[in-house]
Amino acid sequence: MERPLQTVLRQPASNLLLPQPWLTETLLIPFYASVASFALLCLHFLARLTFWKQREPNDDNKVSNGHSQAQPSGIFDKFEKHMARFGGSRIFCYMFTRMIGCLSLFGLTSYTLLSAHDQAADPPADIPPPAWTKAAISITYLYCTLLCLISVSGLRWNRVTRNHAVCVLLVTFAVYAYRDIWPLATSTEHPIDASDELLWIKVTILVIVAIIIPLVIPRQYVPVDPENPMPEPNPELTASWLSLISYTFLDSIIFAGAKVSHLTPEELPPLSDSDWSKDLKNRTFPLLDAFQGAKKHHLFFRLMHPNVFGKEYIILAVALVIQALSRFLAPTAINRILYYLENDKPDTNIQPWFWIIFLFVGPILNSLSTQWYTFVGSRVLVRATALLTQLVFEHSLRIRMKAEVDKDEKGKGKDVDVDATESEKTKKGGEYLTGKINNLITSDLEQIGEGREFLDVALTVPLGLILCILWLYKVLGWSAFVGLVTMLALFPIPGYIAKKVKSVQENKMKKSDARVQEITEAISVIRMVKLFGWEGEVARRIEEKREEELKWILYSKALQLCNNALNFFITHVTMLTTYFAYTVLMHEQLNGMYSFIVCNDIRLTSVQLLRFSPACTMIIQGKVSLDRLNDFLKETELLDEFTATEFAIVRPIAETISSADVIGFKDATFSWHIEAASESLTPSSRPFKLRVDGELTFEKGGITLIVGPTGCGKTSMLMALLGEMHFIPSTVDSWFNLPREGGIAYAPQESWVQNATIRENIVFGSPFDEERYQKVLQQCALEQDLLLFDAGDKTEIGERGLTLSGGQKARVTLARAVYSSADIILLDDILAALDVHTSKWIIKECLRGDLIRGRTVILVTHNVALASPVADFIVSLGLDGSMTTSSTISGVPRSDGMLELDVEDEKEALSKTEEEIVQAKETNSAGKLIMAEEVAEGRVSRKSVKLFLSALGGKHPIIFFTLWILGILLSDWVEMLKIWFLGYWGSQYETRPASEINVAFYLGVFAALTLFMLIVYCSSYLYYVLAAMHASRSIHNRLINSVLGTTLRWLDETPASRIVTRCTQDIQAVDGPLAAAYVELVEVGLTVIGRMGIVIIFIPIFIFPALGIAFMAVYTSNFYLKAQMAVKREMSNAKAPLLAHLGAAIAGLTSVRAYGAQEAFKTESLKRIDQYSRVARVTYNLNRWISVRIDVLGATFSTSLAIYLVYASSTSAANSGFTLNIAVEFTMWLLLLVRFSNDFEGYLDIEHEPESTEAGKPPASWPTSGDLRVEKLSARYSKAGPKVLHDISFEIKSGERIGVVGRTGSGKSSLTLALLRCIIIEGTIFYDGLPTSSINLDALRSHITIIPQIPELLSGTLRNNLDPFDQHTDATLNDALEDVGLFSLQSEGTSDEGRITLNTKIASAGGNLSVGQRQIIALARAIVRQSKVLILDEATSAIDYKTDAVIQNALRNRLGQGVTVLTIAHRLQTIMDADKILVLDSGRIAEFDSPKELLKKEGGKLKSLVDESGDRENLYQMAEGTSTSSSSPDDF
After folding, report:
1. What span, in angstroms and rounded, lies between the C-alpha atoms of 1036 and 1069?
2. CA distance 591 to 990
3. What is the rounded end-to-end Cα distance, in angstroms, of the chain?
4. Dihedral, CA of residue 1055, residue 1057, residue 1063 and residue 1067, to nearest 10
């Protein structure tokens, strides 16, 4: 028997030292492997010996320390400890069994050697003696036995000796497989060692020790960090190799999911320590983050570093090569089987059963390599998601939180002049910063993840095409190259489309950014939207952005259709030209076997091309997203300390200032934008600048006030100190300094709180000190507030502090600053949200308290009279951002009516404090507010499926689904007809001479079928795409309208991040994966049925195996789908906490940086990333579990069919080839069918406010007056919640000005919400004679204007905010701005660059304006709306007294006739000249009369409040109507 190995080795034998026979004797190969192994072990030992002194003591200590506490007393304990070192008794037993097996092999071979010694004759001189070869095998087994003995005896050499033993045993098995197993598959050869009576016993033992045990032995868990091992290792880390490649380590999850209705994250395996984001960050950030030493290459090259993902991609490349090669095993097997059948089953050198096994092994090997590629790829995806999310988050902590203004949007006026260069720079910086960051860690990361398949294009597709052409050449000769030339000639067309795809994707992502920003902004100001009845306008704006996005999505889908059509066209044109060249030019016969070979090969070629096109699309989309992420990391404007510009002077040099501890500025200018230094900007576009001329220092250990009119830059001065603004030196010795060594605390004007408990917000990561904490609660006046909550300080504040009132949030923010140990405290107008009573308490107990004493406090305030007694220093700013005065408090000129604080009066006033009762938001005893994310249990709900299908079908669902499914059926039937036609064409050569066959006819029919199929496919696909676009539009609009139409209670309970996730990530799923998955479901389902039908038609008896396979597939998928659905939903929900954490950090970025809490937030981010990664890893791995099992079922089906055709059927070769091809395809389609998953969760079934009806439309003339009559009004925030208003009745006549006062929590804000029907009410409210319960909400709210304490603005121009519906002229808008004092405020010295006009750009939520400026604009908007009822809820709290006086005058004199004004205010000056004052107490009316009458009431509530005020006399004069001004005399 001729041996290929001998043939190969015989050639170079003369050049070798050993005689040729010693090399060609295969039994000596294991011995040579043993010698090589021994040599390597010696080298390893010498290497270890070299470092013995350095490494051994540490290892010994580690082992001894691990077991020093419990020394084993008995032999069994010692043995148990010994087994534990190997990972447990199971691993040890397998290792011991392997040693026994090797010992048995040594015994058997020694027996054979001794028994054959006497019978052996002298061998020929040219071959080695048999005894020597048998002795070599015995020595090999003895060596393996010794290696196994060493591996079970001690831990030190365990792995090395075990791996060497396995390698030697594998080599030995390969030799015996070649000598004795392979000949069984031939008809001419016999096993070489057949004379050995113990041969098959030896082979069996060898299979066990060399293959089975290495595959089934569990792996020992080795922690990534020996100092921090996992308490319970993930099963993936200890699973055997067989379990890994078959994914049986997931069985426990699958079966658990089948037994329960829902799997929680806690029931999933723990995240492997190799996936812990903390370890991943420590290992890779020095290579990824430029601020940790990474090179500034493109992010792609950083990710491909060997220590990041480079090694994994090498593994992926190997898997892809195996996958490409294994694809040809099944076609080769079909080729040989058809040859066997076509030639009437002749005697062949290789038995047919071998090719049948090949038909089974090929798909299985392909499946294992494909799934391993996906397994490693999904692991890379999860790790990359973790790393890039953290990278984006940490980079966000460095961003300058400048006001992001849309510079591209043109204003409506003619005087807009925006510099083009500025616009481009703003684009680069990210005009939609918050929306862009959300998109980066959702949509973009998903696109980057899908684009990770670039190896598929770079490696698999070219390799697959080369193999296809070579294989085709072997069969069809040079005609294969005709097809290749055709393919190459047409290939530039897909290349051109790929370029278009990139351009379209870039535009689509920009439009997605704009939509996400619009939604994010709408959610952030949704309370204002609902209070103003602007749901329709906001929905329209979002819909406009959505339409622009859908246009580019449609372009993308059209290009995808072109790609698919081109791939189909190129493949079949290639097939036609190949057939033409083979039959017409080469005059060859295209018999049945060749036709199916060509069909199979062309199908494989088509698969490569079909993979190439979508893979290219995904890669391009991924590259666009990766470029966006790279640009974000490189181009976003950062704080000066993170930039290397000449202006990055955050810490001055020691020579410039007298002391490093000084706090202050010298000749410094600051701006929010680096571009502000440009002199090319027009005055209307030039941003605000803060100027400090000369030297300004703040006294250490004292309290400094920063005062000035609204919009002068008081907050900016604090921001400049904190380094948040861009520093522009005015002179060579300019500087600013804020020493941080002793810590900084900061309380912003807009209180920033986290979605955590009150205690957690106050402590804010500092060590907890009970005594200090109780002092802080007392000094910040929080003790009474905590009594209002069942859970006390463990009450969850909720997102954006929804549980607390504005004053409570301000005091929690203040308490955080006071509790901290920081030496320097920066307070930004903390008194604005507090009433006089509470403000006086804060001044006396907190700012004069022992916790503040000795610390430096810088306080921005309008309440100079209230704060001046505790102040040591005062700084006054002008409207243009420049400092006007700075002096000690004694040097400040005082007005005649200056408020003087009297300590005795304060004590008397405080003694009058009544118990306050509030139910701001309902909380349970555990303090929970945020409702848990609903996770649907079981399969996809019928409602979700119905939602998508109804949106897809539109108004004519029957017509749509009929035409579309008919198109799919036609294209699939024509595809199968083409395959059958090839067999029919080839069979003609068996019955007719070649000269009688009309080749042109068959080519023409084949081309016609191809063209018809292409037209039908493109038509049905385009029809579906248009329907899918309609479904995307419909579902998006329904979701947006649902959220905008929900109740305030639901909005309070649901985190904004969760809503944004649903409106972004899930909508993206509807646009892409969901629509693609559904069309795949229908196409694949029909294809599976068609393929199974074809097999049954040609081989009827196979209906039973087909049904059996289908049943097993359904049964297996039932286990899979139940677990997969639950885990997949948890994966979606796990993303929301990440977004919430990032959103909270961005919202309070200044506070986070001021406190130096970046590391704490980074740690929390890593924790939340791990929670997401835990669910994501399981989700992706479950897909592998089902894929392997379906592939095995499919391979079993095709193999059983082949067995029947070869050994039990008389079916013709043509029909056999047709059914075999269909059966092989059936496997692929069956897998795709089972893996289909459709899941859309939304907020479509949430609690909604009543929708508008025709009957609810009020008369066109309504309202004609501002009459309000309230009868027995009670209100509550939820149906089961307690009442917050109790049987209130009052009447307000049109045109009256009503002041509403009361202690914190008395029900003032609840009353305003009840008037607008924002909460559940009982009783009746009449507005201009009509009960509000009978009026549509949009009509009611559009005719009542409310100005909240913290007004919210929309992005766009000032004109858009004042008049979003374009109903008024510029003159009207300017008059309103003048009425509220904006122009008079600016006329006092505001430079052109700081002047606000109708064309001024407003950032999202008004971020580029001070709170005071926002309140002024909100008041102007109220005047423009011309509502008959105007509600002011602390609307002037952040405005200086002088501007407040102007506003109050405008409200008295500039509003139209009959306008009723309800004013809620802590400043008594604001409401003392009202017509009547309504005093609320614990949700009830305590007093309601004119101020004059109420002040006469002894013991009255209002009189008590006025008497406590330091401005008592002036307030009495105002009530009497004799005061000439309502302005406070503390104004400068």
Report:
1. 11
2. 8
3. 112
4. -130
Tell me the pairing of strands 1429-1433 and 1344-1347: parallel
Residue in the structure block whose two tokens are 């000005």: 1297
Whole-prediction pTM value?
A: 0.70
Q: What is the pLDDT of residues 842-876, one digit of tens each?
A: 888 898 888 888 899 999 887 777 788 888 888 88
Q: How would you class 915 by CB atoms within 10 Å of its CB: exposed for 0-12, middle for 13-18, buried for 19 or more?
A: exposed
Radius of gyration of the chain (CA): 40
Side chain identity at 361, as an amino acid letter? V
1098-1108 mean pLDDT: 74
Q: For the chain, give every domain's residue range.
A: 24-57+79-119+127-220, 663-722+756-796+804-893+901-911, 1268-1520
Shortest CA distance to 1239 belongs to which of 1285, 1179, 1198, 1290? 1179
C-alpha closest to that of 95 among 167, 37, 165? 165
CA distance 468 to 473: 8
Distance CA 147, CA 209 (A): 13
Common-topology check for domains 663-722+756-796+804-893+901-911 and 1268-1520: yes
Sheet with 1268-1276, edge to edge strand ranges: 1283-1292, 1268-1276, 1320-1327, 1330-1331
Separation of alpha carbons 1263 and 948, rounded Å: 42
Query: SS3 letters for 2-15?
Result: CCHHHHHHHCCHHH
**Phi, psi of 249, rounded to the nearest 5 degrees:** -65, -10
3-state DSSP assignment of residue 728: strand
Give 830's DSSP letter: T
Question: What is the token pair recorded at 195?
Answer: 């004379």
Q: Which residues 6+ apart lie within 8 Å of 375 measured at CB?
A: 247, 1180, 1181, 1184
Peptide bond into 12 cis (omega under 30): no
Q: Are strands 1484-1489 and 1460-1464 parallel, antiparallel or unpaired?
A: unpaired
For the 1268-1520 domain, the top CATH level (class) is alpha beta
The pLDDT, as a whole number, for residue 816 is 92
207 Cβ partners below 8 Å, 6+ apart? 173
CA 1311, CA 1318: separation in Å to the nearest integer?
10
Task: Please say whether the beta carbons of 175 and 27 come within 8 A.
Answer: yes
Return all residues near 91 (Cβ < 8 A) that are at least 6 apart: 83, 217, 218, 220
Quick check: 1046 and 1248 in contact, CB under 8 A? yes
Helix (H, G, I), strand (E, B) or coil at 654: coil
Q: How far is CA 1472 from the centre of its chain?
A: 53
E strands along 1209-1333, which residues?
A: 1268-1276, 1283-1292, 1297-1301, 1320-1327, 1330-1331
Instruction: State the DSSP code for 803.
Output: T
Angstrom distance (rounded) from CA 491 to CA 484: 10
The answer to whether 396 and 1142 have CB atoms below 8 angstroms apart is: yes
pLDDT, one tens digit per residue, over 546-580 is 888 888 888 888 887 887 788 778 777 877 887 78
Answer whether residue 682 shows pLDDT above 50: no
Return the biggest CA–CA distance within the chain: 138
Q: What is the DSSP string of 1045-1114?
A: TB-HHHHHHS-HHHHHHIIIIIHHHIIIIIHHHHHHHHHHHHHHHHHHHHHHHHSGGGHHHHHHHHHHHH
CA atoms of 1316 and 1337, how far apart (whole Å): 8
Residue count of the chain, please give it: 1532
Tokens of 796: 């969850």
Token digits for 711? 């919009």
Four-point Cα dihedral 236, 239, 244, 248, nearest 10: -90
CB 865 within 8 A of CB 1530: yes
663-722+756-796+804-893+901-911 in CATH: which number?
3.40.50.300
Place of tokens 């509502």: 1427
